[in-house]
Amino acid sequence: MNAFVIDAPAQASVAVLGGGRFPVRRIFCVGKNYAEHVKEMGGEARSDPPVFFTKPADAVVESGAVIAYPQATENLHYEGELAVALKGAGRNLKDRAAAGALIFGNAAACDLTRRDLQSTAKKAGAPWDAAKGFDRSAPIGPIARIEDVPPEAFDDARLVTRINDEVRQDAALSDMIWPVPEIIMALSGLFELRPGDLIFTGTPAGVGALSPGDDVRVDIGPLPSLAFSIGERQ
Q1: Is 171 helix (H, G, I), strand (E, B) or coil?
Q2: pLDDT at res. 2
Q3: In a domain, 32, yes or no
Q4: What residue numbers bound the domain in which 103 lies?
Q5: 65, 128, 134, 146: which is deepest, by most CB within 10 A?
Q6: 125 domain residue, yes or no
Q7: What is the pLDDT of residues 161-171, one digit of tens each?
Q8: Residue by residue, what is the 3-state secondary structure of 68-127?
């Protein structure tokens, strides 16, 4: 007999390259992880610690979707990012090898942001939840297993975001201030990481506004592309 008093929500998940689906538990996001983007947003690289925030699991949207322009904003921004999917659990990790062992795979992603709400929150010293954790705010492409696309495949990889086929972001993943293992180690000191967690690892310079009708594409080295469109306002 089902003990739930209402219908349980569907499990949020993401397609895996080659078949299967990755169940999403939580989405952790990293801010201020590319020096030029930190400057672009008015900060100083490395003098500011990384900023961690979260999105709900059901904010994921798969490649090919049309995402309605969200409510309560006049300034929706794109932020192309590398996403890391975890298959293992860990807390208070102290070395890169232990952090790397948690990784299931990687994907191209985009952190959609209601920039006007974020600016208001920053001025008030308030949380970013409404600016970052809204519905359908985490588009993500298919996840490539680490066995198929190993870490060394990203040695010379670039993150490129195109809006309507025009390049807006173009940066080397090696430009990250905090590489992926360091991000995982830092997060594990704040949360017990579990299988099903996704980590959005930060965006480079070149973020900007989106309008209804815009097509967005994020490419990262050998990973499958992420592509989506912005629809009319909700």
Answers
A1: strand
A2: 75
A3: yes
A4: 13-233
A5: 134
A6: yes
A7: 999 999 999 99
A8: EECCCCCCEEECEEEEEEECCCECCCCCHHHHHCCEEEEEEEECCEEHHHHHHHHHHCCC
